[in-house]
């Protein structure tokens, strides 16, 4: 299981455009490490080919001593049956648990223990899934004892739960989390830990230092119940009431605007609220990405008109789109390379001759062979498997390369991939202005 942020996704996390329910993940510039879904999440909103944590949804039945979902009693065997139907190879499946609250806490403790015991045995019937159990306790000592008990049962992936109610107690929660991490890793350095429900930037920074995964639904809560508009500010995020929210040029806002949807509207329809949720998630992902210490390599298309004489690759291409893309990545002080149909992966300073070749002139087999060579070069360029490749390219430059780099375990991301050339130019110029303004503010 990869460390990083797993965004919570629910049944209403889509925008209706031209009679189609467009899942929010199709609109994002950035993608989370994976997604957290409950057993009640409909399949059509769940992304494919990405890590999923399947959770039984303890928060939804927190008031029930005898937990039920859709009238069915929740226990290890019920959720294993559901996970068999809904999950895929490599997914994380979480043992049913109950929050330690109310008047029947001892019964809830026993429920958690018995189901964790039964669940890991039943999970043998799903050998290509990864079982996880959740650590609970009313005191730090109880949490530590529970963590060791679950590890002794055989769990090597453990979640830390029950901290959302005290989310504002940043130092207190981090003290608990660090103690659990140190205790378990003193026993087994390879054990993986996940924190449920905490994803604010200050938590994200600490979790990345500890190499943890974590999840959260801040984007939904702020959008639907609080009417808050989130804006990234470097490694932090600013909360604006809608009456004072600034104009936004992020990809989500640009995309939905074309269909008459405005994330700044409150109480004027579900589509506007859902767009705000997508925007808020996008801003949270940008912030978490800025906090991350992993290497990021930008790739742009060597496209359009060229000079008539040899030149460094950064200067050879004369098209507005190439130059705007170049200015964008240079403004970020980012590491970047050019993808060329003839030269494959080119360093910006490499001296090359003008040439006449485009991906459109290549056959399917030629593009596949080209992508294989590009991927081999990128693997050599990357510092390690935590490297993220960011594609600011046309579809034919990226689709086969993305598939192959992901098969090597690398993260990929595309920027402005659904915008026309004019819209993409406007977006790039706007992002350069935003980045310069943030630099001036610092």
TrEMBL record:
It comes from the Bacteria. This is DUF6884 domain-containing protein. Residues 297-429 form the DUF6884 domain. Pfam families: DUF6884. GO terms for biological process: tRNA modification.
């Amino acid at each position: 299981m990869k460390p990083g942020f797993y965004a919570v996704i629910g049944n209403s996390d889509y925008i209706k455009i031209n009679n189609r329910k467009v899942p929010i993940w199709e609109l994002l510039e950035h993608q989370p490490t994976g997604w957290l879904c409950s057993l009640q999440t409909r399949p059509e909103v769940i992304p494919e080919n990405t890590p999923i944590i399947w959770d039984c949804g303890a928060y939804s039945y927190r008031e029930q001593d005898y937990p039920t979902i859709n009238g069915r009693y929740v226990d290890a065997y019920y959720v294993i049956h559901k996970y068999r139907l809904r999950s895929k190879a490599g997914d994380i499946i979480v043992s049913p648990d109950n929050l330690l609250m109310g008047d029947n806490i001892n019964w809830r403790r026993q429920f958690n223990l018995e189901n964790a015991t039964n669940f890991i045995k039943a999970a043998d019937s799903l050998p290509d899934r990864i079982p996880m159990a959740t650590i609970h306790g009313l005191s730090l000592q109880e949490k530590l004892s529970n963590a060791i008990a679950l590890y002794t049962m055989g769990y090597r992936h453990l979640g830390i739960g029950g901290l959302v109610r005290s989310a504002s107690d940043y130092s207190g929660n981090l003290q608990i989390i660090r103690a659990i991490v140190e205790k378990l890793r003193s026993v087994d350095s390879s054990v993986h830990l996940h924190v449920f429900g905490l994803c604010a930037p200050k938590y994200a920074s600490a979790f990345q230092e500890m190499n943890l995964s974590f999840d959260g639904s801040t984007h939904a809560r702020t959008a639907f119940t609080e009417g808050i508009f989130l804006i990234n500010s470097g490694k932090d995020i600013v909360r604006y009431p809608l009456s004072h929210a600034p104009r936004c040029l992020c990809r989500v806002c640009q995309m939905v605007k074309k269909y008459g949807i405005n994330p700044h509207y409150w109480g004027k329809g579900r589509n506007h609220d859902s767009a705000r949720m997508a925007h808020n998630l996008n801003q949270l992902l940008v912030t978490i990405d800025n906090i991350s210490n992993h290497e990021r390599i930008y790739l742009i298309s060597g496209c359009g008109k060229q000079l008539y004489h040899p030149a460094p690759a950064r200067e050879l291409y004369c098209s507005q789109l190439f130059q705007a893309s170049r200015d964008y990545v240079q403004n970020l002080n980012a590491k970047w390379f050019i993808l060329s149909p003839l030269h494959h992966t080119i360093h910006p300073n490499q001296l090359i001759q003008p040439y006449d070749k485009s991906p459109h002139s290549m056959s399917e087999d030629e593009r596949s062979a080209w992508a294989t060579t590009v991927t081999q070069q990128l693997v050599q360029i990357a510092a390690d498997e935590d490297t993220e490749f960011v594609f600011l390219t046309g579809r034919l430059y990226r689709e086969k390369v993305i598939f192959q780099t992901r098969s090597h375990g690398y993260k990929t991301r595309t920027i402005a991939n659904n915008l026309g050339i004019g819209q993409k130019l406007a977006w790039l110029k706007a992002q350069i202005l935003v980045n310069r303004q943030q630099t001036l503010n610092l």
